[in-house]
Specification:
Layout (H helix, E strand, L loop, with lengths): L6 H13 L5 E2 H7 L11 H17 L5 E3 L12 E3 L15 H11 L9 H12 L22 H9 L2 E7 L8 E13 L2 E8 L4 E6 L3 E11 L8 H15 L1 E6 L4 H6 L4 E2 L4 E4 L3 H10 L4 E5 L1 H17 L6
Antiparallel strand pairs: 1-3, 2-3, 4-5, 4-8, 5-6, 6-7, 9-11, 9-12, 10-11
Length: about 325
């Protein structure tokens, strides 16, 4: 059975394909070339066309300017219509100028865009569109967002997911002095609360497990074994739902100073409370690291375990700087 491509990845692949052509591509070319559609090409043609139409409508509602080009003889004849996203829609005004400081900021922002960051399926879809005669005369760099992360494990894990390859890595759990080696058939990378997780099938535990990338130490190594790509179906959605459920079950009562970074960041995911704000969290140790980084801008009222964990981190930081009083 062909792996099911998540809707958001399928729509991203469609955007890439429509931006990589000036003449436009037909529905037939899209359904047989773009990843997310071509895997279902042996199914119902009517259902596949409805899927494309839904994606097209969803993207237009999001503000993506998908242009429909009719036949030359009769522009109203859409039986052989071509679709494209005109790059001119994204051109900057000729009279727009930036200061050196603004250019520096744009340069930093531009670091999150790269063709090399596209998934293998997205790159494969682009190659197939080019093979149909589409004129991708402009590189797609700048159109395909890269999900940035400081964890070195991200790239190898994404490649292993694309290739359905089993991996192993050393994983350090909170409170342990030494990491343990874990084996995983990685199925999806999930961004939750601005932290990356990998979810997959753990053959040693005989079940699906989720790991925080920041706790992976050393290299991600291939075991040489593969797995059925169908194992990836719905893994990301299940992991995201599980993480959300955990966060919903445990919250922290935090007092924050107005106008500080702590208030700005924590209020985005918080609910108002009589004493400060109530913030959901998944991992106490990771959340304690974040709260400690705010210093005096945030104070944990409850739970006690989280407050103690933050205090321990602040004391350790003060000791490093020689500020602990006897």
């Amino acid at each position: 059975m062909a792996p099911r491509i998540p809707a958001e990845e399928r729509q991203l692949n469609l955007i890439v394909a429509l931006m990589a052509t000036q003449r436009g591509v037909t529905k037939e070319e899209i359904l047989h070339s773009v990843s997310g559609y071509r895997q279902r090409a042996d199914g119902s043609r009517q259902a596949l066309e409805k899927l494309f139409d839904r994606d097209k409508d969803d993207l237009r509602r999001l503000g993506v300017p998908i242009e429909t080009i009719g036949a030359h003889a009769d522009p109203n004849d859409l039986r052989e219509a071509r679709y494209r996203i005109p790059q001119a829609e994204y051109d900057l005004p000729d009279d727009l100028e930036f200061t050196p400081a603004e250019l520096a900021v744009l340069g930093v922002a531009g670091g999150v865009w790269s063709e090399g960051s596209l998934s293998a399926e997205a790159r494969d879809g682009l190659r197939k569109i080019r093979a149909t005669g589409g004129d991708a005369d402009e590189p797609i760099i700048g159109f395909a967002p890269r999900m940035t992360t400081r964890e070195e494990a991200f790239g190898p894990l994404q490649q292993a997911i694309d290739e359905a390859a089993e991996v192993e890595f050393d994983y350090l759990k909170p409170g342990e002095q030494h990491p343990t080696t874990r084996t995983l058939r990685p199925c999806a990378l999930v961004d939750f609360e601005a932290r990356w997780h990998v979810v997959g099938w753990d053959p040693d535990a005989a079940g699906e497990r989720t790991f925080l990338l920041s706790r992976i130490s050393g290299d991600v190594r291939r075991t040489g074994a593969g797995f059925d790509p169908a194992l990836r179906d719905g893994a990301g959605e299940r992991a995201a739902a599980e993480l959300a459920a955990i966060a919903a079950r445990q919250t922290a009562l935090i007092e924050v100073h107005a106008g500080t970074e702590a208030e700005l960041r924590l209020r985005r995911k918080a609910l108002p409370a009589e004493q400060g704000i109530r913030v959901p969290y998944v991992d106490m140790h990771v959340f304690a690291d974040e709260l400690a980084s705010y210093g005096p801008e945030a104070r944990v009222v409850a739970p006690d375990a989280l407050r103690d964990a933050v205090i321990d981190r602040l004391r350790a930081a003060a000791a490093v700087h020689g500020e602990v009083r006897a």
